[in-house]
């Protein structure tokens, strides 16, 4: 079956087309430039941009895949979590398409979609696998017996998300928004061992993370330099900060694998695009005998293909579609894959 997926939880209007595990189109319109001068996503601006981008992005995805509306067998849409007004635009559009074409609609969890998207690149997910979801709003360790129906949270951040820490540190360093990609780039010319930044909750026995202490430590370090009238070694700060984040992430992810006897680790979400996270995870997984799966960077950040991928998984698992009254739920819990 051909599934069209719609994503509007944040600032990307994404429309993907998927058949089984095959990606046919992945069209994206982003309002990120409209938010950059505010240093973060402005919800009203995002909702309006989704409204304007929705129809053209759907049409572009259909054209890219060389199919028409009538070829679509099912629609999937991000029902949550995310910005309420932004989610509502996607959910309303998906309902209108499904109703007018008489096709089933699946309201899906954005976070499960970040996990499921890897099937488009590396085939069916092993059952079970461990998934580490690291994005702008979430940092969680999950045990995933079945991405269509059984996702269990083992731990998550107690304060900032990993991507949020990247964005805040980028602001401290005047590097603009979003911070992840630019810190990743700057860090290539820096020394990851230059500054010993704190690693929150490193050996505390939990599967939780904490990044706000690290963010504050970076801000204090930079302020002290500026007060002393000394130049800030931006590349070294970026590299040392990034190393602290990816060290904790990979250490905890492998602890979950070991404690649960699972030999497959998947990393998803926007921060999974980080080059140092990908490299250190590969190194540590190799040493631990764990198989690592990370989607290509374009599939890690928000997109419509991931929503279509999860929709296709629900269809092939024979799960019932959603009611046409399905709500947008801005705080949808990670365990609720579809509603
Ligand atoms: P959520 O998925 O939790 O709802 P979101 O949808 O806003 O949040 P994503 O698009 O999945 O998040 O990820 C965006 C985040 O990923 C931003 O915080 C951004 O800085 C971060 N990010 C993107 N690329 C990189 C990178 N190369 N290195 C580190 N962080 C990155
Ligand atoms: Mg985004
Ligand atoms: Fe996301």
From TrEMBL:
Keywords, alphabetical: Acyltransferase, Cytoplasm, Iron, Metal-binding, Transferase, tRNA processing
MF annotations from Gene Ontology: iron ion binding; tRNA N(6)-L-threonylcarbamoyladenine synthase activity
Compartments, as annotated in UniProt: Cytoplasm
Cofactor(s) for this UniProt protein: Fe(2+)
Keyword ATP-binding applies: no
Keyword Acyltransferase: yes
A single GO BP: tRNA threonylcarbamoyladenosine modification
Cofactor: how bound: Binds 1 Fe(2+) ion per subunit.
Stored Pfam families: TsaD (PF00814)
Class of the enzyme per the UniProt entry, highest EC level: transferase
CDD domains: ASKHA_NBD_TsaD_bac
Binding site for substrate: 133-137, 167, 180, 184, 274
EC number(s) on file: 2.3.1.234
NCBIfam families recorded: gcp_kae1 (TIGR00329), T6A_TsaD_YgjD (TIGR03723)
Function: Required for the formation of a threonylcarbamoyl group on adenosine at position 37 (t(6)A37) in tRNAs that read codons beginning with adenine. Is involved in the transfer of the threonylcarbamoyl moiety of threonylcarbamoyl-AMP (TC-AMP) to the N6 group of A37, together with TsaE and TsaB. TsaD likely plays a direct catalytic role in this reaction.
Similarity remark: Belongs to the KAE1 / TsaD family.
The name this protein goes by in its record: tRNA N6-adenosine threonylcarbamoyltransferase
């Amino acid at each position: 079956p051909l599934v069209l997926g719609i994503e509007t939880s944040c600032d990307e209007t994404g429309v993907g087309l998927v058949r089984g595990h095959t990606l046919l189109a992945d069209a994206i319109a982003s309002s990120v430039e409209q938010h950059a001068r505010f240093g973060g996503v402005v919800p009203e601006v995002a909702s309006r941009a989704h409204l304007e981008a929705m129809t053209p992005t759907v049409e572009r995805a259909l054209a890219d895949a060389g199919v028409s509306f009538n070829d679509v067998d099912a629609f999937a849409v991000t029902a949550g979590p995310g910005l309420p007004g932004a989610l509502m635009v996607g959910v309303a559009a998906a309902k209108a398409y499904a109703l007018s074409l008489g096709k089933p609609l699946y309201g899906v969890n954005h976070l499960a979609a970040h996990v499921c998207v890897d099937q488009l690149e590396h085939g069916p997910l092993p059952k079970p696998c461990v998934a580490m979801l690291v994005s702008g709003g979430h940092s969680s360790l999950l045990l995933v017996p079945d991405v269509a129906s059984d996702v269990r949270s083992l731990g998550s951040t107690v304060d900032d998300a990993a991507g949020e820490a990247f964005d805040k540190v980028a602001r401290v360093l005047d590097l603009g928004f979003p911070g992840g990609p630019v810190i990743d780039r700057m860090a290539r010319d820096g020394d990851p061992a230059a500054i010993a930044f704190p690693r929150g909750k490193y050996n505390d026995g939990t599967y939780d993370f904490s990044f706000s202490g690290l963010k504050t430590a970076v801000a204090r370090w930079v302020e002290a330099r500026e007060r002393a009238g000394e130049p800030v070694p931006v590349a070294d700060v970026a590299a040392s900060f990034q190393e602290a984040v990816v060290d904790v992430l990979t250490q905890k992810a492998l602890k979950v694998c070991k404690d649960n006897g699972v030999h497959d680790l998947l990393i998803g979400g926007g921060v999974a695009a980080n080059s140092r996270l990908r490299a250190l995870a590969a190194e540590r997984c190799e040493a631990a005998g764990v198989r690592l799966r990370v989607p290509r960077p374009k599939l890690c950040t928000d997109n419509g293909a991931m929503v279509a991928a999860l929709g296709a998984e629900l269809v092939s698992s024979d799960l019932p579609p959603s009611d046409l009254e399905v709500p947008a739920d801005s705080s949808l819990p990670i365990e609720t894959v579809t509603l």
